[in-house]
Every structure is written in structure tokens, then in C-alpha cells.
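Justification of resources, computational component.

The compute hours requested in this renewal are based largely on the per-chain cost of generating structure records like the one below. Each record pairs the submitted sequence with a full C-alpha cell output. That output is archived, and it is also reused by downstream analysis tasks.
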Amino acid sequence: GRTQEEVNAAPVLIIDEESPGNLFYKRQLKVNAAGLIGGRNAKDGVAIFGQKKPNEEKFKSDFEIEYKEVLPYPYIFAVYYQRENKSFYIRAYSGKSSDNRILFVKLSGTNSLPLKQREILSAGNAIFQLSPIKEGNKIEVIHLSKKDTEGTRKTIFDPSTTKEITIGRESHCTFAFPKEKSFSRIQTTIKYEEDKGQWLIMDGSKTKSSTNGTWVFGTHSFEIKDQMIVEILTTKIKFTLLQNDK
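The structure output for this chain reads:
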């Protein structure tokens, strides 16, 4: 369990709903190092969000969300505190594959994502799969398109010749969609960081964010950063981190 001393020293996470949606009944929720304030009081550092299902016993969730459809699983997602680096994380319970549609994380200027494992991106109205290749720090990019009936389009980029990959409406983009209004001029930038030897996924260009954002499928745990926005079951959620000065 988490001691009161640890809770006092840790930050507090504020969870607010953004429109549309009413998952939390328009309530503001707070999570500390012990778990959801007002939750099941397990003091294990985990806040579990689930759905109450008819004709079944109540599952031990910290909060039962409001959702119009009955989902095939009792738990939806969890927010947990990791004491090693004093950070909160979020993960979807149903995120077993790249087809996960429960949780999306929005990238922004302050919330870029180092490519450490396979990621699925939603940019404009297109979906891309990005996979790091250890040998030579290369990156495999697969454009998954509903219109592409002949299979996927796969490209491997080598940082020795390509250090920036762009997705957008501009004709000079690596993946250009000039007629698609769902894309910004530069929707997403994937750049190679020479000093770190890794690729970084960013929303928009170096100077301007995209209009609709770049979203990452929640197929694994994500560290929660201040002002981060996620989409859970089509409802946008905003996280605010309050640092404790004690």
C-alpha cells in the first residue's frame, strides 16, 4: 500500500471531461498516489474505471462510467501511479491489439512521443503503423488505407538518408494528401533525433500544430503529462497535474 507520507509528497492528477460525452456525469475526478479519491480505497496506486453490467455483481471498479452501449468487459481503463519516477500512467484494459478503439492519446507540442515500440497513428482520415527497426535505427511506416484494396503500402526509412518524415496536405510531404481537407498542411512530423538515436513523433510541423491533431492508439501504457488530452469511448478527457510542494 501507499503511505500517507508518499501521498502527500506525490502530485495530484485532475481529470476533467471535454465535450462531447458524459462518462463521468460531468464530475471532476482526482487521483493521488494511493488511487482515485473517493474510490475503493485500496491504496494500491491504481484507479480502475469500469462499466456496471446488468444482472451481474458489481465489479470492484473505483468509478463506473456512463456509456450507452454494454461493452463485453467490465473494466475499461486504468490510471496508475508509478512511485519509481513519480508519474501517472494510463492504459486501456481492452488494448490487446492494434484494433483497439477504446483509448486514443493526443500528441501536441508539449506531448511528443519517442518511437520505442510499434505505434498506430490516426492522422487526418488516414491510419499509419510505425515500427522501429533496431538495426541501423531504421523505421518501417505502413499506410493502412481503407481505399487500398490491394493491401498495405510499406516503406522503410534509413536515418542515414532520411531524417524527417511528414504527413499532410502539402505536396512536398512524404505522405501527401493534397485533396483531403481532413489534413493540415503538415499534419504529423516524424523526425530522427541524432543525439538520442531514436525517432520522435510530433503533431504538426516544428512551428505549428495541426487542426485536428495526431492521435495514437492506446495499445500500451502512456505516461500522463500535464494538459494531456485523451479520447476514451469518443469522449475527450483532459489531465492536469498539480505538483505538491510539501
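The chain is about 0% helix and 40% strand. Residues 140 and 156 are 4 Å apart (CA to CA).
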